Amino acid sequence: MRQRILVSALGVGALAVAGLTVQTLSAAGADAATPYTAGKHAARVCSTAKAKHTASCNAVKLVNPDGFAPAASAPPSTGLTPTGLRDAYKLNGLSAGGRTVAIVDAYGYPNLERDLGVYRSQFGLSACTTANGCLKVINQTGGTSLPRFNAGWAGEQALDVDAVSAAAPDAKIIVVQANSASFADLGTAVQTAAKQAGVVAISNSYGGGDASDATYGAYYNHPGIAVTASTGDDGYQGGSYPASSSYTTAVGGTSLVAASNSRGWSESVWSGAGSGCSTYNTALPGAASFSTGCSKRAMADVSAAADPGKGGMAIYYPTSKTASTWAQFGGTSEAAPIIAAVYALSGNTSGYANAFPYAHPGSLFDVTSGSNGSCPTTQWCNARTGWDGPTGLGTPNGAGAF
């Protein structure tokens, strides 16, 4: 039976990432003596959605056995940096050329601009502010009266803006904050994002149970804009909406580590990466020749780094409405904005963007090892050559598949 590595941030136990000894780390600077990941386990950033057709964010962070990520004055040394990310996915030399990535999340985050500035300054990225036109933060209908603060979803937003910044430093960013985590409010925010000038990609790092495009598809149906959605952090579980929508690019997750090979990196399935078949929505036309085993829409389509311990990003995030610090985050919430940023780097978003990877699988790094659980059809939960559920067709090798 697959071991769960994710636990509620409100009730964490003394679990550990597989292979790591559980021990309490002291506060800032602990990773100077031991790796930041040592003794830590992955905990959800947002509470689990309980109401039907309500989403939970798919961000996780590394915490100690007491359930805390100790305050740190510097990024964890084990966290994936912008330089590492762009090298791993061969994105150096690519430019977004003024294109914009929109990020849709729930609730407010008053210090988003301040915290993004800390992250970008730390890693030598140019400033992205409202004053210079790089950053815009609006509510679900496009106004400037923003929703109430929610610490979990604000952490999700921090991961999203940092991930886009890392993958495509010159991309503009629009954050659209929904009033709540209901499918209706988040969907309204997606529609607002699609109307913003310059937007070529919309990242959605959240999900709920499988749902029908007949009810919610109009929110995500935006030909000419790449709409990415994370597949979830619970392994093989079946469809998760909106990743199970026929209109989105479903993004799974990998474990990413430096390696002494020609690429310089190695990837395998992250055990938490969501996968499965929708019971409602139509299969993507391009997937027919890849033997998904699903009679309807299969997820994932592509993937990127998501394992918080192996490929998790060092990010600057809020611990309260006023205070922020560094920690190491992951989840398929990391992967979805990375892929949205790669679409912005490619600029090739005419028509339905989720068709592009199926037409160019040779421009992806195929992930062929690892598993995210037990399943009745092998490729739904086990990596293999070609398409598989946890990682789709693979991870970016430049922007040629996007």
UniProtKB/TrEMBL annotation:
Gene3D superfamilies: Peptidase S8/S53 domain
UniProt keyword terms in alphabetical order: Hydrolase, Protease, Serine protease, Signal
InterPro entries: Peptidase_S8/S53_dom_sf (IPR036852), Peptidase_S8_Ser-AS (IPR023828), Sedolisin_dom (IPR030400), Tripeptidyl-peptidase_I (IPR050819)
Single GO term (MF): serine-type endopeptidase activity
GO BP annotations, alphabetical order: proteolysis
Signal peptide, first to last residue: 1-27
Coiled-coil regions, chain positions: none
Domain Peptidase S53 residues, every copy: 79-402
PANTHER family in the cross-refs: PROTEASE S8 TRIPEPTIDYL PEPTIDASE I CLN2, TRIPEPTIDYL-PEPTIDASE 1
Protein name, UniProt field: Peptidase S53 domain-containing protein
